[in-house]
Amino acid sequence: MNMFIVLKNKTEVTNDKYDKLLLDHTNLQRELNVTKQKAYELQNEVNELKSLKSVTQMHSVQHLNNVTKHLQQEIQNTNNHINVLESDATARKQDFIALVQDASQMKMELARYTASMLSKIDNFRNFTVGFMDGLRVNMSNEMNENNMNYSNTKQVALTACGTIGTYNKGDIAKFSIIKEHQGIDRLNSFTQSGIFTCEMSGTYVFFASMMSNTADGYFVLYKNSVPKSGAYISARSEIMSQDQACWW
Questions:
Q1: CB atoms within 10 A of CB 236
Q2: What's the pLDDT band for 237 if we cut at 50, 70, 90?
Q3: Any coiled-coil ranges, and where (predicted)?
Q4: pLDDT at res. 225
Q5: Who wins on pLDDT, 235 or 107?
Q6: pLDDT in the model for residue 238
Q7: Angle between helices 61-152 and 2-50 (to 10 degrees)
Q8: What would the pLDDT profile of 44-85 be if each residue is shown by its tens digit?
């Protein structure tokens, strides 16, 4: 883009120079025409002076000779001025030709630069279109895969409660009263052992709550014999009902 701006500025400067040269050339041509007209008139006067034949006119031959010499000098000066003007016009013409050549060269460079930029834009557009098409295909494949995985996912849920009992350190609490269940086949194993076995792969969320009538009761949740979470239980004086220890 900077190259384009530079070429544009050069073109504007060249146009300004061209307009100035054209104006100077027009003024020089006008002055040349005026000078040629004056030379033509002086030459006519000289010719008229040379054709004098009468005696009266001969008396002023000396004067006329002086005038003639003066006119000839004027003509010579005019011719010299014309030559200078023609030389100046020739130089301006050469400058104009050079400016036209520069303008043509700048136009060619601008055309090449424009073609290069258009090519880069087309390449970037093609790259962008290809990238977006690939991205859409990947997103579509991922969405289809996620939809298949979701459709193949089985929902699992279980709510169970325990009974009042005495547990010592290291004992496994039993939740033998099943309230709700879905997607679980081995309920007997869970109610008898207190150990929940994940029958399908996936993400499981566990919640548990217990109450105790002792001041230092606590329970711990284990995963594969590794403790993961636990809580201390506040002392309660009243007798717990059958549903006051639950597991989700």
A1: 13
A2: very low
A3: 18-88
A4: 87
A5: 107
A6: 45
A7: 160
A8: 877 776 665 554 555 666 777 777 788 888 888 888 888 888
Is residue 185 within 8 A of residue 141, CB to CB? The reply is no
The strand pair at 208-209 and 157-161 is best described as unpaired
How many C-alpha atoms does 162 have within 13 Å on its Cβ side?
23
What's the Cα-to-Cα distance from 13 to each of 18, 63, 95, 103, rounded to whole Å? 9, 57, 14, 10
* Predicted local distance difference test score (pLDDT) of residue 50: 67
pTM, two decimal places: 0.35
Bridge partners of 235, per DSSP, are 212
Residue with tokens 């639950």: 246
Cβ neighbors of 49 (< 8 A, separation 6 or more) are 64, 67, 68
